[in-house]
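EI: anyone free to look at a 495-residue chain?
SC: sure, send it
EI:
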Amino acid sequence: MRTEPPAPLPRQLRHGLVYGLLAELLALPLLAVGARMTDHNVRWLPFAGAVATTVVALAWPRIVRPEKATTGSENRRRAISVVMLGLAMSAVALTQAAFGSELGSFGLVILVGICLASVIADRRAQLVIAAYGFLLVVGAAWSAGYRGSHLFTQTVAYGATITLIIAIFDCSVGQLRRPNFHQRPLETLNDALDGIGHASRSSADTVEEVIRRGMPLVTSVLPADRAAVFVRHETLGRFTLLAAWPTQDTSVDELATLPDLASALHSGKVIIDNDFCFIPVGYCSDGELGMVIERAAWDAAVDQRATEAANGLATAFLRRTSRANFISGLRAESRTDTLTGLPNARSMTERIEIEMSRALRTDTSLSLAILDLDHFSQFNDEHGPVAGDNVLRSLAACIISNVRAQDLVARSGGEEFCLILPETDIEGGHHVLEALRHGGRNNTANLGVTVSAGLTSWDGIEDVSSLLERANMALERAKRSGRDRVVSIEAYTEF
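SC: here you go
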């Protein structure tokens, strides 16, 4: 199982270790002077060793020169700190041997060093520092003149104290330092969800795509036998399946009947027990999204972090589904006419290109019409823009209700509407437009507004701008001919 990289070594600990070594280096000459003034014997060989060891400990980071800003360099900085700590403990032991001080003060320093090692080092380094400290204490006790039962008593006392320190730190700090087994899979999930939208602009950033991409990675974060995402429809008042793992079939339908799913969506919080996990994961156009995970049996030590893993899943999906909804809203707004709700000119151009490719591939006809309200400016001047907006909405509704599902109605600008008619030749398009013109006249004739239309068909070669230009030519011809009529132009040669 993969483990987490260690947390960054606190800067205060590193600085504290350096300041302690500097203080020891400055205190050694003062101790030597004080010992000479009080006629105490100084063992100069251990004294020189203490000075040299302290200098090496301070210079050690510069000697090794760790890299910066990488996971490996953080491990290396920890190793450097452990070596510096061991050298500092050696310097203290040599100082005790040089001045013949009592074991009590020296032993306290060793115990503090072991406590520090329990914070900054991993388990193996902790044991090494503890064993090294114990040997230093035994050597210092021997150097201080302890023999026989006195040496045995000191050895047992310090050995028990060191063991107790390691146990206490393992139960406290060690629990916090244990790896989060779900963190790496969560990072993989976040990377996968962040990658949505980079490969394909057409199908990207939808809520369905977020759920579909993330579902196979859910079980690596929270081990499970099954997982499913359901939509709670506001209008239907029930849950429907959106996605499932390992397969999307009816075998997960019973998960939607679990009462804790509705409770999790109502509270907006993760609900987890020994068998299931219920996670709110955002919204889609149909309603709220809830994930149900049927948990697999797994290691009890890892199971203690199941709630943390479930909350990580909730955060990952909530953030991405919110982003997907935001982007979808922006995309729809940029392609929709706010007054009529129809696609705008940008959507119209994209759809014409799509229909051209389809017509070329299937060898079918494609017709394009532009409809325009006659005397609309005069109507606006007489009745005001609010009445004009109502007329535009009325004509949009009339056109939509009289065309097929595969046809596209767009508002190309002002009082102009564009109608894309796939699999329709010029004659069929003319019949459609005549019906629309009469329907528009029935709605607007009493207002003094009629409808003119220009119709053309694609020749299989020209581009979008040429096709639109010819449709506009047909519309202008209808206007010049007296308005309230349909004019068809199949090719430029008809002019």
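EI: Residues 71-99 form the longest helix (29 residues).
SC: 👍
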